[in-house]
Every structure is written in structure tokens, then in C-alpha cells.
Amino acid sequence: MADALIQDFLTGAEYTVGLIGNPSPGFTVLPPLQNDYGALDPGLPPILTYGSKADPDSPYWEKLRFRRAEIDDVKWSQLVDQSVRLFRRLGLRDYARIDFREGEDGQPRLLDVNTNPTWYWDGKLALMAEWAGYPYHELLRLILEAAVARYGLEPSP
Questions:
Q1: Which of 49, 64, 108, 143 has the fewest other C-beta atoms within 10 Å?
Q2: Where are the domains of the chain?
Q3: Which helix (H) or strand (E) holds 87?
Q4: What residues does the D-alanine--D-alanine ligase C-terminal domain cover (predicted)?
């Protein structure tokens, strides 16, 4: 007998929280990102597929967009609190992206923990950092500084 996991498909908005840093001394929390499936063919499931990331022939390739999420302070605070808690409990280091998707009841549920999200200049982490006022090279600097601090090293001048 094989084990199986069966769960409802979450149909609501999909959010990403970006964290840079470590539990001590703390995190830089990047502005929230929302996946925008509005330009997809209505017959396609609204999911972030492999094709949307790596296959120019995919119907998702040019249709999927990312935008700054417009959520209220309460929901944002809950997402950040849950993300920080997960970061600590999973023993993550230096940076991570935590993805959530709302159910029909409007409550966000954990979708994915990206312990090593891409550093692409046009990826989600870089986009959120840009919204926070950190150009790409500053995002890389923040990640490296988090690692340096975690190891207790002195940064070079």
C-alpha cells in the first residue's frame, strides 16, 4: 500500500514573503509579492508551472506576471509572523522565500518553503528587493552580510 496526500486545491490569491537575515539579529522583510494569473487562458489552471519558468513554448511563459500584493496590515503581519516562525523551526539560514495561497475562506495556507530561492536578477526575490529600494547588487550584499554575521566574521572594508 502506498501513502498518499489528498488536499483541496487552494483557489485564492498566492503570496510570497521574502526574508533576508537570521533570527538573531533579525530579518529584512521584503514587500509582499502576488502571482497574477489574470492573463492566462481561462482553460489553464492558475498555478506556477515549470513551463512558466523554463519553457518558452509553454502557454504560461509570457502570461504569468508578478505584482506587489495589496493586502491589509493584519494579513501581512500574519504572513510575516508565520514565515519567521517557519524560518526558525526549519533552521533556515540567511534568506528564504515562503509562499502561501488562500483557500476559499480567504485564509492563507502554506504552499511552499523555498530554502534556497534563485538569485536571478529578474526572479521573485530580486523583484521584491527592488520594491524595498534594494537594487540587485544590494540584495546580494544583504544575503552575504547575513551569512558573515551568522558566522561571526568581520566584513572586509
A1: 49
A2: 14-151
A3: helix 73-89
A4: 5-144
- Write down the pLDDT at residue 113: 96
Q: In angstroms, rounded to a whole number, what is the distance separating the alpha carbons of residues 118 and 139?
A: 12
Angle at 109 between CA 108 and CA 113, to 5 degrees: 120
Quick one: pLDDT at residue 155?
A: 65
CATH topology of domain 14-151: D-amino Acid Aminotransferase; Chain A, domain 1 (3.30.470)
Q: Which set of grid coordinates corresponds to residue 134?
A: 534594494
- Give the length of the chain: 157
Please count the other Cβ atoms lying within 10 Å of the Cβ belonging to residue 104. 10
C-alpha grid cell for residue 67?
505584482
Q: 117 near 96, Cβ under 8 Å?
A: yes
Mean pLDDT (10-residue bins), the chain, 157 residues: 81 96 94 95 90 89 92 96 97 97 93 89 93 97 94 78
pTM: 0.89
State the residue for C-alpha cell 506576471. 65
